Amino acid sequence: MKLQTSDRTALWLLLGATALMLLSGLGARELWGAETRWANIALQMLQSGDYFDPYLKGGPYYDKPLPSYWLITATAWLTGGLGNWSLRLPSVISAWLSVWLVYSLGEQLFRKGTGLVAGWMLATTFYFVFWARVATADILTVCGVLAAVWWYWRGPDDTRFGRYLGFFLLLSLTSLFKGLIGFILPGLLLLPHVLQDGRWKRHLNLRMCLALLIAGGFYMTPFILSHFYGAPTYGESGLGLVLRENVVRFFQPFDNIGPIYTYLIYLPVYTLPWTPVWIIALWVAVRRWSSVEPNTRWLIWGLGLLMLFFTASGSRRSYYVLPLVPFAQLLGAWWITRHNVVSRGWKIGFGAATLLLLAVLGVLYPWTNGGGGVIRFGESVKLEASKRAPLKDWRMVMVEVDNKVPMYLQTGGAPFYYVQENQDFPRTGDSAALMKWLDTTSGQHWDPQRTIIVAHYRNGDALPLHYLSVDHQVITTTPTNGERMFHGREDQSVAFIPQS
Q1: Which of 365, 397, 426 is the last residue of a domain?
Q2: Phi then psi for 315, rounded to 5 degrees?
Q3: 340: left (phi over 0), alpha (psi -120 to 50) or beta
Q4: Alpha helices, DSSP H, located in 288-364
Q5: What stretches of 407-471 show up as alpha helix (H) in DSSP?
């Protein structure tokens, strides 16, 4: 797709504004929700050097395929350490690419200018930007689905081996981020077009079968490496978890059970503020179905199949609807450009939405997360510890600590040692008893003067391991600006640093 100078300028303006919205204040917010799991697992990989066995708080946790964690460890290596930036950067890059892919699809499938409108609509969709700044695999999946659809539409009737191989490798890579939906979602989206005019018949050939076989081998590679190079005592199977999370959960959900109308509510919510646009577009297209362009009919059929698939699954959560969001906005952009309603008002609307998101993400988020919290807690612990000895000389013991704290306590020393709540560690006594218990349980010697104990507890509960305060400096988390204004902290962390 060759671009004229004005088109190229408009595209770079879109991508530049998107980058600003995605990066502003990215490192200021504390870890949130599932981010804590990704951070803890990636941190243990970096500390132990074992990249084939994911652990959460010291225990096996093969909840997602390995590449989603590998991306985080790779960005941590590039940026010099694991932090909020490196943790969230894979999602940010995927979101930025998603905006470009939506732009490319719009320009490819519809009239000139549709892609630009669709790109601005997606880039200024609040929940898309929100999840793009969260360290999970959801936006990686969105990007992978868009990439596979984009690749297909570059040559839907092309039967060369390279075309098949690129398509199936994209499906495999997407499935390695979150699960088998990386194969299923693009397949459902493209199915109406493949079935149209018997197109599927020309794609049933040996070249496609060979490409699918190679892509299947690519998908299996991390699991094979994990089996042969992982710890023999790990105890969890990656493929077993894939079956449980993708097949068993679909037919016999064991968590995340929502009502059958979940996505009828959350698709409109997750496409704000542009929800009315794609709803009007859908209404117009259905009313004039026979005169609507074939590509628009394909888009509506594809969205319908995705909605049916997600609704049929017994496991439902609001953010599962994210892969539908770019295609809903693409439908809205089709209506805007088809009726020549792209005007100065739309440009003002996109600009206002961009400034609002920048104000929320670049100003409000950093302020509400400042003044305290676990980020400040980690800085205080490392500062006080460094007064006594170099940080790399310290060892950390985490007693049932919340996942979000360890990342902020990296010292460059030995890996953290995790003590679970159900273990029989001394809850009363003195520091000598605790150190003796650690020596016995871990099978290694702990230097009382170079060991920091960190524990997690609910606000209002008694201080855990309070007896350590006799000969340790006590540091606790303090409320952030936002918590002081709206509510207190629900959870606390406490660090015990041995006195000289």
Answers
A1: 365
A2: -95, 115
A3: left
A4: 294-312, 325-338, 344-359
A5: 431-442
Least confident of 82-91, 240-249, 262-271, 362-371: 240-249
Residue 2, domain member (yes or no): no
Paired tokens of 468: 């350590």
Whether pTM exceeds 0.90: yes
- For 1, 260, 423, the CA distances from 298, given in Å and listed in that order, are 22, 25, 57
Q: 10 Å Cβ neighbour count for 366?
A: 16
Is there a single domain that holds both residue 52 and residue 180? Answer: yes
Residue 27: phi and psi, rounded to 5, are -90, 0
| pLDDT, tens digit, 9 for 90 and up, residues 278-325 | 999 999 999 999 889 999 999 999 999 999 999 988 778 888 999 999
Answer for the pair 434, 470: CB distance below 8 angstroms, yes or no.
no
b/e per residue, 127-166, with b = 16+ CB within 10 A?
bbbebbbbbbbbbbbbbbbbbbbbbbbeeeeeeeeebbbb
Same domain, 99 and 158: yes
**Which structural domain, as residue segments, surrounds residue 226?**
20-365
Q: How far apart are CA 352 and CA 332, in angstroms?
A: 19
Q: What are phi and psi of 282, to 5 degrees?
A: -65, -45
Task: Decide: 148 and 167 in contact? Cβ < 8 Å.
Answer: yes
Angle (CA) 400 405 410, round 5°: 115
Nearest to 84 by CA among 47, 135, 137, 140: 135
What is the pairing mode between strands 59-60 and 417-419?
A: unpaired
Which residue has tokens 């190079």? 229
Altogether, the residues listed in the chain come to a count of: 500
d(CA 348, CA 120): 12
Is the domain of 144 the same as that of 213?
yes
